[in-house]
UniProtKB/TrEMBL annotation:
Organism this protein belongs to: Cytophaga hutchinsonii (strain ATCC 33406 / DSM 1761 / CIP 103989 / NBRC 15051 / NCIMB 9469 / D465)
Keywords: S-adenosyl-L-methionine
Pfam families (alphabetical): SAM_HAT_C (PF20257), SAM_HAT_N (PF01887)
Organism superkingdom: Bacteria
Protein's name according to its UniProt entry: S-adenosyl-l-methionine hydroxide adenosyltransferase
Annotated coiled-coil segments of the chain: none
Length: 261
């Protein structure tokens, strides 16, 4: 039996998370449910996609990922189940799924809305039960009609030249660290052993460090995080607050023309 992971923007104050878990367990009390987070910024699809994109491959193939973020309550929303990189995802077709991977889903199913469907709380009435069915070995093809495409969204793009890389902040974590869309692979491709500066706000650093503690407390530091993305932080401080940067703020790497031997 597969694992069900659960991510939402519900928070912990209200009973919504518990209600969905109760529904899952009432259908099959042996289900293993793993909370990814319920502290996604309200309605923030890019935030949710960043979190899921960086964690879903750590779970076993065949896992089912229940995503409840920015769910409208109109009754007109398209509920979907998809198969992507041998994982299943269940949620609303609101652009989220287009941000998870460079690969395309192998299967996209629009879920049926039966007589138990609730336009007020579709996460509980339809999405939760679909997640259970998939985790129990049910065929995704029996859950609705197949679609050819999903709603799409675009993330900020990186601009790369021979001497500069311009990127954007794509996520601010709980510590105020600024995670960008500049990757180690992009940096290595352009670097060629040349001196460089990482520029952000009115600050700059001359080296990308190997740890957050490579500098003194209160100083700016740039690192490549465990996902390979360039991250700007302040040692023992909140970079977002102290630098005045946020989602979509620009970060630049500028390379010298000459190589140092």
């Amino acid at each position: 039996m597969a694992i069900i992971t659960f991510m939402s923007d519900f928070g912990w104050r209200d009973p919504y998370v518990a209600s969905i878990k109760a529904k899952i367990l009432s259908v099959n009390h042996t289900m293993q449910i793993v909370d990814i987070t319920h502290e996604i910024e309200h309605f923030n699809i890019p935030h949710a996609a960043y979190v899921m994109r960086n964690i879903f491959r750590d779970f076993p193939k065949g896992s089912v990922h229940l995503v409840c973020v920015n769910t409208p309550a109109s009754g007109k929303e398209k509920l979907v189940a998809i198969k992507l990189e041998e994982h299943y995802f269940v949620g609303i077709d609101n652009g989220f799924f287009s941000l998870l991977s460079d690969k395309q889903p192998s299967t996209i199913i629009e879920l049926r809305k039966d007589d138990k469907y609730s336009a007020i709380f579709p996460e509980r009435s339809t999405l939760a039960t679909t997640a259970v069915a998939l985790a129990s070995g049910g065929s995704i093809y029996n859950m609705g009609i197949e679609l050819k495409a999903l709603a799409s969204m675009m993330l900020p793009q990186v601009k790369v030249t021979k001497s500069q890389i311009w990127g954007r902040v794509v996520h601010v974590d709980n510590y105020g660290n600024l995670i960008t869309n500049i990757t180690r692979e992009m940096f290595d491709r352009v670097h060629e052993g040349r001196p460089y500066s990482v520029l952000f706000s009115r600050e700059q650093v001359e080296v990308i460090s190997t740890s957050y503690n490579s500098v003194e407390s209160g100083e700016c530091v740039a690192v490549f995080n465990s996902s390979g993305n360039l991250e700007v932080a302040i040692c023992h401080g909140n970079a977002a607050e102290l630098l005045g940067l946020q989602y979509d703020s620009q970060v630049q790497i500028k390379f010298s023309e000459s190589t140092v031997f």
